[in-house]
Amino acid sequence: MTLPEGWEMVVGLEVHTELRTATKMFCGCANVFGAEANTNVCPVCLGLPGSLPVLNERAVSMAMAIGMALHATIAPSTFHRKNYFYPDMPKDFQISQYDLPINSGGYLDLPDGSRVRIERAHLEEDTGKSTHLGASGRIHGADRSLVDYNRSGVPLVEIVSGPDIRSAAQARLYASELRAVLIATGASDGRMEEGSMRIDANVSVRRNGEPFGTRCEIKNLNSLRSLQRAIEFEAQRQVELLEGGGVVRQETRHWDETVGATSTMRVKEEAEDYRYFREPDLVDLAPDAAWQQRVADELGPMPAERRAAVVGLLGEPSDAQRDAIDVVIDLGLERFVHATHAAGGDVAVALARVANELAAAEDVSKLTEAAFVATIALESSGQLSATQAKTVLADLIASGGEPREVAAARGFEQLSADSLGDIVAALIAANPDEWSRFRDGDDKLAQFFVGLVMRETKGRANGKAVIAELHARR
Amino acid sequence: MNATAMAERVRRGETSARFLAEESLRAIRARNEELNVFLHVDEHGAMAAAARVDDAIARGEDPGRLAGVPIALKDNLCQVGVPTTCSSRILEGWRPPYSATVVERLLDAGAVPMGKTNLDEFAMGSSTETSAFGPTRNPLDPTRVPGGSSGGSAAAVAAGMTPLALGSDTGGSIRQPAALCGIVGVKPTYGLVSRYGLIAFASSLDQIGPFATSVADAALLLEVIAGHDPMDSTSLPEPAPSLVAHLDDGVAGRRIGLVRELIEGADAEIVTAVERAASVLEAAGATVVELSIPELRLGLSAYYLIAPAEASSNLARYDGVRYGLRVTDEDVTAMNEATRTAGFGAEVKRRIMLGTYALSAGYYDAYYGQALKVRTQMRDAFKRAYRDVDTLLGATTPSVAFTFGSKTNDPMAMYLSDVFTIPTNLAGEAALSVPFGRGEADLPTGVQLLGPGRSEARLLAAAKVLEDVERGS
User: Fold this and answer.
1) B16, B87, B150, B173: which one is catalytic?
2) Which segments in chain B show pLDDT lower than 50?
3) Helix (H, G, I), strand (E, B) or coil at B51
4) Which of B16, B24, B74, B126 does the annotation list as catalytic?
C-alpha cells in the first residue's frame, strides 16, 4: 500500500525493551516471564508504604550497552517520577528518566542504507499487567480487572527515534534492525510475543515539501507485522481525512489487529499532566569511565558487521540465504558458520543447518564447533545423507558427543563405494526401461534411481553419491 | 529509670526484660485512655521480644545494647504483622509484611517495641490534632497538645510509658513535640538513619530520630539505629557515628552562633531560655557569637511547597486497589476518588492539593522550581555560617505547648509552630532539642542546637552541658 501521489508520511518510533537482568530494577525479585501471577513480588515492587527503591547496577550496564550500540552519548543522569493513577502501577507513579536521560543522541543504520537518528534511550520501570474480564477486554466496561505485579519494576529502556522514517516498510526495518541490535547487546531477548519489546508509533502525513503535520500516537504494537499494518492504515486514514477537508486531531490511538484499523483512545486535550519531579528516593546516576569501559569491553560486534562477515563467506547469497543469515545473527550462532569456513567446509550447507536445525533448538551449548564442522564434512563428502546429518546434529545438540560415534550409534555406518556400486548395479538390472531412458538423456530419471537406492538402504546412502554413481555408469 | 541504666541492669541479670515490659504495659494502661498515646499496644509481641532477651541472658549471650528496654514506635514505622495506620482511615487495618530497618536494628539490640503511637495523619501537623483517631494529650498538661507530628511518641516518653521512642522529623516533628513535652529529641543528618520502612511524607526531608528523657539515652538509641543501609539509596555510606563515647566532650573551644532568626517572634520566656543557654555554654568554655542568617526566613514558604509536592506523589498509592480502605464505585477512577475522599482527612487533602498544584505544568517553575532554588540558598547560607561557627543555637518552638483547637482553624498559625525547625530539614543537616527553662504555665521550653551534616556527637555533647546545668549536677 502506498500513499497517493504528492503525500509523504513521517514516522518516529518509541520502542520499550525489557532488560534481561536476573532481578528487577529496584528490588531483588526475579525478572522472569511466565511465572504464576503475583509470585515474584516484594514490598518494593508492590510499592508498599515505606518501601524504597535501590537501583540495579546491571540494568544500568545494559542501558549503557544499548546506548553504545546506538552511537549515543552516555551522560550523568537523574530519575524522575511520572505521576498518574493506574491500577497496574503500584505506586501510582512510574520511576523514569526525564530531562537528563542516560543515553542521548545517536543513530541506527538500516540494511537498506538509510540512517534513523536516535533522540534518547532512557531507563524506566515497567508496570504490572492488567487483565480485564468482560466483553471489551479493555478497562472501560470491564466486569472485573485482575492485576499481576510480576512485571512491576522490571527494568525497561525506552528508545526514541527521530522523526526520520518515511514508510511503513522502513519502520518495520528499523524495528527489526533495532531488535537485532538489542539482542546483540545481550540487554534484551527481543521477544515481542512476550511483550519484552513493545512499540509505539508516532505517525503524521504531509504534502511533499510542507512542514510536519499533526501526529497521532499508536500505542502498544506488539509485532513487526502489526507495526507495518498499523502505520499503513494510519497514514492512509490521515491522508483521506485531509483530502476530504478535515483536520487530524493530536491523539493517542489503539490498533485493533483483527479489524485492521486504529481507533481513538484519548485526545490530547484530555492528556494527563504527569507532574514530573526528581525522584527523591534515588541518587544521581553518573557511571564513571571505568564502568563505561567495562561495558564497552563486553560489547561484541553489532549485527550489521556480523551479517556482513557471513555474507562475505557466501559471496552472493540468495534471498533465502539472506533470511537464514538474519536468523543466525539474531540467535548469535554464526560461530558455527565461521568455524566451518575456517576448516574449509561447505559454508552454504553449514548456514542451512544452523538456520534450521540449530535455530530450532532451545540450547546448543552441548554442541561443539568442532563436532558441527565434522558433521558438515561427513555430509559434504557423502558419508552421511542430509537426513542422517540432521539426525546426527539433533543428537549432538541433545547430548553432545562426536559425530562419527553418534552416527555409528544410530547405525549410520557409511555405505562403502563398493556396496553402493553393487546396489546401483542390481537396481539398473531390475529396471531396464528406466535405465535406457536415463541413458538416452532423461536426467529426471536420476531421482527415480536415487529413490530406489534410498529405499534399499533405508536412507543410509548419500543422494549425491548415488547420482555420481549413475552418471559414472551411463 | 533511664534506658542506659535499664539495659545495663538487664545485661547484668539484675532485672528482666519481661519485668520491664510488664512495668511499661502497666504505665501504658494507667494513662493511655486519658492521653491517647498508643493506637496499638502490641502486648503479645512485646512479651515475646522480652522473653527472647531473657532467654539470651539465660544462655549467657549478650542481647545487645538496648537489652530489655521498652520502646514506642511512631505509627508510620512498619513492623511486620503489627497494624500500621499513619493515623489515617485509609490505612486502617493494614499490617505490613515487613519491618523497617530501624525496627530490625532495635530488635537486634534487644529493645522491646511496645506498640505504635499516635501522630498527625501521615505526619502532617504539629499537634496530633489531625490524627483520624483523635488527638494525643500532653502528659504534662492534658488540656494541651503534645506537639506533632510525633506527639504520641513524645508523650509516651514524657508520661513514663517507655523510656525511649522513635519519631520522624520532616519539618520539626521530633524536635517540636520533644520541646513541648520536656524531653530530648534529635533530628539526625539526612541519610544517617535508614528510611526503609518509614512511610513517606516528604522523602527528601523525612528522617527518623530518637526521643529520650536524657541526652545520653538519645545518643545510645541513635547509635543503635544509625549507619548505612543498602535498602535506602539516600543512606550515608558510613557506619554509625560514635556518640555515647563523646557525651562528655564538653564545649570548650567551640564556636557557637546564637541565630537571630531562630528566636525571632518567640515567647519572652523562650528567648530568655536560649540566652541563658548561651551563657551556660560560654561558661563551659565555648565562644558564643550572635549572628543572622536571613535566608532562614524563607524556609517556611519553601517547605510548604516542597513537602506537599513530594507528599502528593508519595500518597498517590493509597488508591483502594491493593490494601487499606476501599470504597467501591462504578469504575476504577470513581473507586480511587471515593476511597481517597473518604480515607484522607482535611489537612492531608489540603497538602495533596497544594503539592499537586505546585508541580503542575505551567506552575512548576513559579512554585516547586522556585522552592528548590530557595532550598539551595538555605544550604549555602548554613554552609557560610559554619565557616565561622561550628554549632548554631536557637529556640525549638515559638511557644510552649498550646491548648487544643487554638490553631486548628488557622493553618498558617499551625505551620508557624515549625518555623525554627524547618530550615534544618531543608538543608539535610542535624539538630536536636533539649529541655531548658520553663515558659508560660511553668511548661517546659526547648533549646535547639544545630550543626552541619554528621555533627550529632558535637550537638549531643553541647546538649549534655545544658542538661547537666539544668539538672544541677
Assistant:
1) B173
2) none
3) helix
4) B74
**Domain B3-246, CATH:** 3.90.1300.10
Measure A24 CA to nearest chain B CA, in Å: 14
A54 with B331: Cβ contact below 8 A: no
CATH class as words, domain A417-473? mainly alpha
Instruction: Nearest chain B residue to A285 by CA: give it.
Output: B233
| B233 catalytic residue (yes or no) | no
| pLDDT tens digits along B353-395 | 999 999 999 999 999 999 999 999 999 999 999 999 999 999 9
Residue numbers in B near A53 (CB within 8 A): 233
- Of all helices (H) and strands (E), which one includes residue A202? strand A197-207
End-to-end CA distance of chain A: 54
Taking CB atoms and an 8 Å limit, are B234 and A87 in contact across chains? no
Amino acid A271: pLDDT: 63
Examine residue B149 and say whether the peptide bond preceding it is cis (omega within 30 degrees of 0). yes
Nearest CA in chain A to B202: A280
Question: The cell 528482666 sits on which residue?
Answer: B16
Instruction: List pLDDT tens digits, range A403-443.
Output: 999 988 888 866 666 778 888 888 898 999 999 999 888 88
Per residue in A123-177, pLDDT (tens digit) is: 999 999 998 887 666 766 677 889 999 999 999 999 999 999 999 999 999 999 9
Tell me if chain B has a CB within 8 Å of the CB of A81. Answer: yes
Quick: pLDDT tens for B44-63. Answer: 999 999 999 999 999 999 99
Query: To probe the interface with A, which of B168, B208, B305, B314 has the most A CB atoms within 10 Å?
Result: B314
Task: Give percent of chain A above pLDDT 90.
Answer: 77
Distance CA A275, CA A269 (A): 16
Q: How many helices (H) and strands (E) does chain A have?
A: 16, 15
- Tens digit of pLDDT for each residue in B415-435? 888 999 999 999 999 999 999
Nearest chain A residue to B194, by CA: A52
Residue ranges per domain, chain B? 3-246
Q: Which residue has the cell 542516560?
A: A102
Q: Quickly count: other Cβ atoms within 10 Å of residue B75's Cβ.
A: 30
Query: Does residue B77 sit in helix, strand or coil?
Result: strand
| A95 strand-pairing partners | A81
Q: How many Å lie between the alpha carbon of A364 and the closest alpha carbon of chain B? A: 39
> Checking DSSP bridges between strand A251-256 and strand A216-221, what pairing results, if any?
parallel
Q: What is the pLDDT of residue A136?
A: 67
